[in-house]
Amino acid sequence: MSFHLDTPSKVSIVEVGPRDGLQNEKTPLTVQDKVTLIDALSNTGLRRIEAGSFVSPKWVPQMANSDAVLTSIARQQGISYSALTPNMRGLTDALAAKADEVAVFGAASESFSQKNINCSIEQSIERFIPVIDAAKAASVPVRAYISCVLGCPYEGEVSPQAVLDVSKTLLSLGCYEVSLGDTIGVGTPKKTSALLSLLLSQLPANKLALHMHDTYGQALANVLIGLQHGIASFDASVAGLGGCPYAKGASGNLASEDLLYMLENMDIDTGIDLQKLIKVGHHISVKLDRQNGAKAGRALLA
Description:
By secondary structure, the protein is an alpha/beta fold. It has a single domain, classed as Alpha-Beta Barrel (TIM Barrel), CATH 3.20.20. 41% of the residues lie in helices and 14% in strands. The protein is built from twelve helices and eight strands. It has an eight-stranded parallel beta sheet. Helix 8 (189-200) links the parallel strand 6 and strand 7 (208-212). The two termini are 34 Å apart. Keywords: Lyase, Metal-binding. It comes from Glaciecola siphonariae.
């Protein structure tokens, strides 16, 4: 019996390890450590790398010196180096550091929005408008992240309609893609399918990406549901960098190596060299003195 899945033939991976991954790691890294990591990732075939975050170092100490990181990396043609920019000051600093792309981040949960960025969902979107407008004026693409699309640490269930409303608003403001974040990793295939069915009834698949966390081991199962719904953009973190800050001791980000191993074995093209990525994951895990969070990385380390 032949096994056939109707999935995209090509997928784009956004490597978030240097930002979303490192910001949740306890071991501090130097600017040179971060530059070395990003330069190594640039040599794997990745085309989208999240290189830093222009937020207050008081709140996210690991992201201090993102300007120095972005100005020191060996940029390669055809690779987009992006940065998170929560406000106008962040955007100004990111543009000065020559970020190729910027990202804003909101939430689908009111409680999470208040706890994470100290304002309501509506207020957060109001804050994004000048950032998005200024980025567009500088011809810099803007991506959007939405947290807690499948569950919230404070509210529990999150309404798919709330996710749709925020997604539509951010796309209408000029974001080219919305990354749907399962921030605490509680999503399951059934929930993911229900969410995507609603979103795709009103939005095109090429405007959506999935950012799945692996807290309960569900990330790849949810990615598969995304693929079956025609989603072709996924966020992942080399070596599974970044724990989940809301679930003690839990793994957080989906490891890029595990995602790539699955996609390769489904004959889905990513343009990325798995063995090279595995070496990068191994080196950064040693540097951080942590276990490599990528199962494929551990199994295939040559």
